Amino acid sequence: MDGSESKPATPPPSPPTLRTPWRQVSWGNNASDLDYVKNYKPENEAVRHIRVLLHGQVGAGKSTFINSVSSVVRRKRVLPALARSDNSEISFTEKFKTHTIQKEDRGNFYPFVFNDVMGLEEGTGRGVHVKDIKLALEGHVKEGYKFNPVSPLTPSDHGYVSQPSPDDGVHVLVCLYSANAGDMRGGVLQKMREIREAASALGIPQIAVLTKIDQACGQVEKDLKNTFKSKYVKTKIEDFSRKVGIPLNCIFPVKNYCTETLLDDDVDTLILSALRAIIDFGEDFANTL
User: Fold this and answer.
1) Region (Disordered): which ranges (predicted)?
2) Model confidence over 32-42: pLDDT tens digits?
3) Residue 127 phi/psi, 5° resolution?
4) How far apart are CA 75 and CA 222, in angstroms?
5) What is the C-alpha to C-alpha distance for residues 174 and 285, in angstroms, rounded to an integer?
6) Beta bridge partners of residue 3, listed in sequence order
7) pTM
8) Rounded CA gap, 285 and 289, in Å?
9) Which residues on neighbouring strands pair with residue 120, listed in sequence order?
10) Domains in the chain: ranges and CATH
11) Residues forming beta bridges with residue 175, ordered by sequence position
12) Whose CA is closest to 219, among 269, 255, 272, 176?
Protein backbone atom coordinates (compact mmCIF):
# COMPACT_ATOMS: atom_id res chain seq x y z
CA MET A 1 0.00 0.00 0.00
CA ASP A 2 0.97 3.62 -0.02
CA GLY A 3 2.75 5.65 2.64
CA SER A 4 0.81 6.01 5.87
CA GLU A 5 0.16 8.91 8.20
CA SER A 6 3.39 9.72 10.05
CA LYS A 7 2.77 12.60 12.45
CA PRO A 8 5.53 15.17 13.05
CA ALA A 9 6.16 16.38 16.58
CA THR A 10 5.15 19.99 15.88
CA PRO A 11 3.13 21.19 12.87
CA PRO A 12 4.55 24.23 11.04
CA PRO A 13 3.24 27.72 11.89
CA SER A 14 -0.09 28.50 10.26
CA PRO A 15 -1.87 31.67 9.17
CA PRO A 16 -4.58 32.93 11.54
CA THR A 17 -7.96 31.28 11.25
CA LEU A 18 -10.90 32.95 9.54
CA ARG A 19 -13.75 34.26 11.68
CA THR A 20 -16.45 32.62 9.52
CA PRO A 21 -16.11 29.00 8.29
CA TRP A 22 -15.91 28.69 4.51
CA ARG A 23 -17.92 25.43 4.65
CA GLN A 24 -20.64 24.47 7.12
CA VAL A 25 -20.58 21.07 8.85
CA SER A 26 -22.38 19.76 11.91
CA TRP A 27 -19.46 18.70 14.09
CA GLY A 28 -19.96 15.50 16.06
CA ASN A 29 -23.56 14.96 14.92
CA ASN A 30 -22.74 11.85 12.90
CA ALA A 31 -25.76 9.63 13.57
CA SER A 32 -27.70 10.47 10.38
CA ASP A 33 -24.67 10.10 8.08
CA LEU A 34 -23.68 6.85 9.78
CA ASP A 35 -27.22 5.48 9.44
CA TYR A 36 -27.25 6.48 5.79
CA VAL A 37 -23.97 4.65 5.13
CA LYS A 38 -25.00 1.56 7.10
CA ASN A 39 -28.38 1.27 5.35
CA TYR A 40 -27.16 2.09 1.85
CA LYS A 41 -28.01 -0.33 -0.95
CA PRO A 42 -27.47 0.26 -4.69
CA GLU A 43 -30.71 0.96 -6.51
CA ASN A 44 -29.47 -0.67 -9.71
CA GLU A 45 -29.89 -4.42 -9.15
CA ALA A 46 -27.18 -5.16 -11.73
CA VAL A 47 -24.65 -3.50 -9.41
CA ARG A 48 -23.87 -5.39 -6.21
CA HIS A 49 -21.56 -2.71 -4.87
CA ILE A 50 -20.23 0.76 -5.65
CA ARG A 51 -16.59 0.47 -6.69
CA VAL A 52 -14.37 3.33 -5.52
CA LEU A 53 -10.94 3.71 -7.13
CA LEU A 54 -8.37 5.61 -5.07
CA HIS A 55 -5.32 7.15 -6.67
CA GLY A 56 -2.79 9.82 -5.79
CA GLN A 57 0.83 10.66 -5.18
CA VAL A 58 2.97 8.27 -3.15
CA GLY A 59 2.47 8.94 0.56
CA ALA A 60 -0.93 10.64 0.25
CA GLY A 61 -2.49 8.16 2.68
CA LYS A 62 -4.70 6.06 0.39
CA SER A 63 -4.43 2.87 2.45
CA THR A 64 -4.81 4.82 5.68
CA PHE A 65 -7.98 6.40 4.31
CA ILE A 66 -9.41 2.94 3.62
CA ASN A 67 -8.56 1.93 7.20
CA SER A 68 -10.11 5.13 8.56
CA VAL A 69 -13.35 4.65 6.63
CA SER A 70 -13.54 1.04 7.80
CA SER A 71 -12.93 2.12 11.41
CA VAL A 72 -15.67 4.75 11.30
CA VAL A 73 -18.24 2.42 9.73
CA ARG A 74 -17.43 -0.56 11.99
CA ARG A 75 -17.15 1.69 15.09
CA LYS A 76 -13.77 0.33 16.12
CA ARG A 77 -10.18 0.75 15.00
CA VAL A 78 -9.41 -1.76 12.24
CA LEU A 79 -6.61 -2.15 9.68
CA PRO A 80 -7.94 -4.03 6.63
CA ALA A 81 -5.42 -2.36 4.31
CA LEU A 82 -1.73 -2.73 5.08
CA ALA A 83 -0.07 0.68 5.27
CA ARG A 84 3.49 1.87 5.64
CA SER A 85 4.36 3.72 8.84
CA ASP A 86 7.12 5.88 7.37
CA ASN A 87 7.13 8.59 4.71
CA SER A 88 8.87 6.59 2.02
CA GLU A 89 8.75 8.04 -1.48
CA ILE A 90 8.38 4.53 -2.90
CA SER A 91 4.84 3.16 -3.25
CA PHE A 92 3.94 0.38 -0.82
CA THR A 93 1.06 -0.80 -3.02
CA GLU A 94 2.15 -3.16 -5.77
CA LYS A 95 -1.02 -5.09 -6.66
CA PHE A 96 -4.58 -4.22 -7.61
CA LYS A 97 -6.67 -5.24 -4.61
CA THR A 98 -10.30 -4.81 -3.62
CA HIS A 99 -10.93 -3.85 0.01
CA THR A 100 -14.31 -4.67 1.55
CA ILE A 101 -15.82 -3.59 4.86
CA GLN A 102 -17.43 -6.30 6.94
CA LYS A 103 -20.84 -5.80 8.52
CA GLU A 104 -21.70 -6.80 12.08
CA ASP A 105 -22.97 -10.20 10.97
CA ARG A 106 -20.09 -12.33 9.78
CA GLY A 107 -19.89 -13.03 6.06
CA ASN A 108 -21.81 -9.91 5.01
CA PHE A 109 -20.16 -6.79 3.62
CA TYR A 110 -21.19 -3.22 2.91
CA PRO A 111 -22.15 -2.60 -0.74
CA PHE A 112 -19.22 -0.33 -1.46
CA VAL A 113 -15.62 -1.42 -2.06
CA PHE A 114 -12.29 0.37 -2.43
CA ASN A 115 -9.52 -0.33 -4.90
CA ASP A 116 -6.05 0.97 -4.07
CA VAL A 117 -3.35 1.33 -6.72
CA MET A 118 0.35 2.04 -6.80
CA GLY A 119 1.10 5.72 -6.17
CA LEU A 120 1.77 8.28 -8.88
CA GLU A 121 5.37 9.46 -9.27
CA GLU A 122 7.21 12.05 -11.32
CA GLY A 123 8.61 10.94 -14.69
CA THR A 124 8.16 7.88 -16.86
CA GLY A 125 8.78 4.34 -15.68
CA ARG A 126 8.01 5.27 -12.06
CA GLY A 127 4.84 4.68 -10.06
CA VAL A 128 1.59 3.38 -11.48
CA HIS A 129 1.23 3.74 -15.25
CA VAL A 130 -1.60 6.09 -16.23
CA LYS A 131 -2.78 3.54 -18.81
CA ASP A 132 -3.32 0.99 -16.02
CA ILE A 133 -5.57 3.41 -14.13
CA LYS A 134 -7.52 4.08 -17.33
CA LEU A 135 -8.01 0.33 -17.79
CA ALA A 136 -9.07 -0.03 -14.14
CA LEU A 137 -11.74 2.63 -14.66
CA GLU A 138 -13.39 0.39 -17.26
CA GLY A 139 -12.98 -2.78 -15.17
CA HIS A 140 -10.27 -4.39 -17.29
CA VAL A 141 -7.81 -4.97 -14.41
CA LYS A 142 -8.04 -8.34 -12.68
CA GLU A 143 -7.83 -8.70 -8.91
CA GLY A 144 -4.22 -9.29 -7.84
CA TYR A 145 -2.65 -7.80 -10.97
CA LYS A 146 0.88 -6.61 -10.18
CA PHE A 147 1.58 -3.14 -11.51
CA ASN A 148 4.54 -2.60 -13.78
CA PRO A 149 5.58 1.08 -14.00
CA VAL A 150 7.43 0.46 -17.26
CA SER A 151 4.93 -1.72 -19.11
CA PRO A 152 1.15 -1.25 -18.68
CA LEU A 153 -1.41 -4.04 -18.93
CA THR A 154 -2.36 -5.26 -22.42
CA PRO A 155 -5.30 -7.38 -23.64
CA SER A 156 -3.00 -10.37 -24.08
CA ASP A 157 -1.85 -10.33 -20.44
CA HIS A 158 -3.24 -12.71 -17.81
CA GLY A 159 -4.31 -9.76 -15.63
CA TYR A 160 -6.62 -8.32 -18.30
CA VAL A 161 -10.40 -8.69 -17.97
CA SER A 162 -11.78 -8.75 -21.51
CA GLN A 163 -15.49 -8.55 -20.67
CA PRO A 164 -15.96 -6.62 -17.41
CA SER A 165 -19.31 -6.68 -15.64
CA PRO A 166 -21.09 -3.57 -14.25
CA ASP A 167 -19.51 -4.52 -10.91
CA ASP A 168 -15.97 -4.56 -12.32
CA GLY A 169 -15.98 -0.99 -13.56
CA VAL A 170 -15.34 2.03 -11.34
CA HIS A 171 -18.35 4.05 -10.20
CA VAL A 172 -16.49 6.93 -8.55
CA LEU A 173 -12.85 8.05 -8.77
CA VAL A 174 -11.19 9.55 -5.69
CA CYS A 175 -7.90 11.45 -5.85
CA LEU A 176 -6.03 11.80 -2.55
CA TYR A 177 -3.35 14.39 -1.93
CA SER A 178 -1.47 15.49 1.17
CA ALA A 179 -1.81 18.91 2.78
CA ASN A 180 1.57 18.29 4.38
CA ALA A 181 3.46 17.84 1.10
CA GLY A 182 5.13 20.54 -0.95
CA ASP A 183 3.84 21.66 -4.33
CA MET A 184 3.28 18.74 -6.70
CA ARG A 185 5.68 18.52 -9.59
CA GLY A 186 4.38 19.10 -13.09
CA GLY A 187 4.64 15.48 -14.18
CA VAL A 188 2.41 14.22 -11.36
CA LEU A 189 -0.16 16.94 -11.97
CA GLN A 190 -0.22 16.11 -15.66
CA LYS A 191 -0.87 12.45 -14.85
CA MET A 192 -3.72 13.47 -12.53
CA ARG A 193 -5.25 15.61 -15.27
CA GLU A 194 -4.98 12.73 -17.76
CA ILE A 195 -6.72 10.39 -15.34
CA ARG A 196 -9.43 12.97 -14.69
CA GLU A 197 -10.00 13.48 -18.41
CA ALA A 198 -10.28 9.69 -18.95
CA ALA A 199 -12.82 9.38 -16.13
CA SER A 200 -14.79 12.35 -17.44
CA ALA A 201 -14.92 10.80 -20.92
CA LEU A 202 -16.51 7.72 -19.32
CA GLY A 203 -18.91 9.83 -17.27
CA ILE A 204 -17.36 8.64 -14.00
CA PRO A 205 -17.73 11.24 -11.20
CA GLN A 206 -14.65 12.41 -9.31
CA ILE A 207 -13.91 13.56 -5.79
CA ALA A 208 -10.65 14.69 -4.15
CA VAL A 209 -9.67 14.12 -0.52
CA LEU A 210 -7.10 16.34 1.17
CA THR A 211 -5.30 14.32 3.86
CA LYS A 212 -2.94 15.11 6.76
CA ILE A 213 -4.55 18.49 7.46
CA ASP A 214 -3.56 18.30 11.14
CA GLN A 215 0.10 17.85 10.22
CA ALA A 216 0.04 20.81 7.84
CA CYS A 217 -1.82 23.39 9.92
CA GLY A 218 -1.13 24.15 13.57
CA GLN A 219 -4.63 25.58 14.12
CA VAL A 220 -6.22 22.37 12.84
CA GLU A 221 -3.83 20.24 14.90
CA LYS A 222 -4.92 22.23 17.96
CA ASP A 223 -8.64 21.81 17.20
CA LEU A 224 -10.04 19.88 14.24
CA LYS A 225 -13.09 22.17 14.29
CA ASN A 226 -10.79 24.86 12.84
CA THR A 227 -10.60 22.90 9.56
CA PHE A 228 -13.07 25.13 7.74
CA LYS A 229 -11.67 28.29 9.31
CA SER A 230 -8.12 27.46 8.25
CA LYS A 231 -6.70 29.76 5.56
CA TYR A 232 -4.02 27.17 4.83
CA VAL A 233 -6.50 24.35 4.18
CA LYS A 234 -8.70 26.64 2.08
CA THR A 235 -5.72 27.71 -0.02
CA LYS A 236 -4.60 24.10 -0.51
CA ILE A 237 -8.05 23.13 -1.76
CA GLU A 238 -8.37 26.15 -4.07
CA ASP A 239 -4.90 25.54 -5.50
CA PHE A 240 -5.62 21.86 -6.23
CA SER A 241 -8.99 22.70 -7.79
CA ARG A 242 -7.33 25.23 -10.10
CA LYS A 243 -4.53 22.88 -11.17
CA VAL A 244 -6.47 19.63 -11.60
CA GLY A 245 -9.96 20.89 -12.37
CA ILE A 246 -12.00 19.24 -9.60
CA PRO A 247 -14.68 21.66 -8.29
CA LEU A 248 -14.20 23.11 -4.81
CA ASN A 249 -17.36 21.47 -3.46
CA CYS A 250 -16.04 18.06 -4.55
CA ILE A 251 -12.86 18.34 -2.44
CA PHE A 252 -13.02 17.10 1.15
CA PRO A 253 -10.38 17.69 3.85
CA VAL A 254 -9.91 14.79 6.29
CA LYS A 255 -7.72 13.65 9.12
CA ASN A 256 -7.08 9.93 8.86
CA TYR A 257 -6.81 7.78 11.93
CA CYS A 258 -3.11 7.32 12.56
CA THR A 259 -1.84 7.39 16.13
CA GLU A 260 -5.26 7.13 17.79
CA THR A 261 -6.47 3.93 19.41
CA LEU A 262 -10.01 5.22 20.02
CA LEU A 263 -12.55 6.81 17.68
CA ASP A 264 -13.07 10.58 17.74
CA ASP A 265 -16.36 12.29 16.81
CA ASP A 266 -14.72 15.18 14.95
CA VAL A 267 -12.44 12.89 12.92
CA ASP A 268 -15.53 10.83 12.08
CA THR A 269 -17.43 13.94 10.94
CA LEU A 270 -14.89 14.71 8.21
CA ILE A 271 -14.52 11.11 7.07
CA LEU A 272 -18.30 10.55 6.94
CA SER A 273 -18.73 13.77 4.97
CA ALA A 274 -16.33 12.48 2.31
CA LEU A 275 -17.74 8.94 2.39
CA ARG A 276 -21.34 10.04 1.96
CA ALA A 277 -20.38 12.13 -1.08
CA ILE A 278 -18.46 9.17 -2.51
CA ILE A 279 -21.49 6.90 -2.12
CA ASP A 280 -23.92 9.49 -3.54
CA PHE A 281 -21.75 10.18 -6.58
CA GLY A 282 -21.16 6.47 -7.18
CA GLU A 283 -24.88 5.69 -6.82
CA ASP A 284 -25.81 8.32 -9.39
CA PHE A 285 -23.34 6.89 -11.89
CA ALA A 286 -24.36 3.27 -11.22
CA ASN A 287 -27.96 4.20 -12.04
CA THR A 288 -26.88 5.17 -15.55
CA LEU A 289 -25.50 1.72 -16.36
Assistant:
1) 1-24
2) 999 999 999 99
3) 75, -175
4) 24
5) 14
6) 84
7) 0.91
8) 7
9) 57, 127
10) 30-80+89-287 (3.40.50.300)
11) 55, 208
12) 255
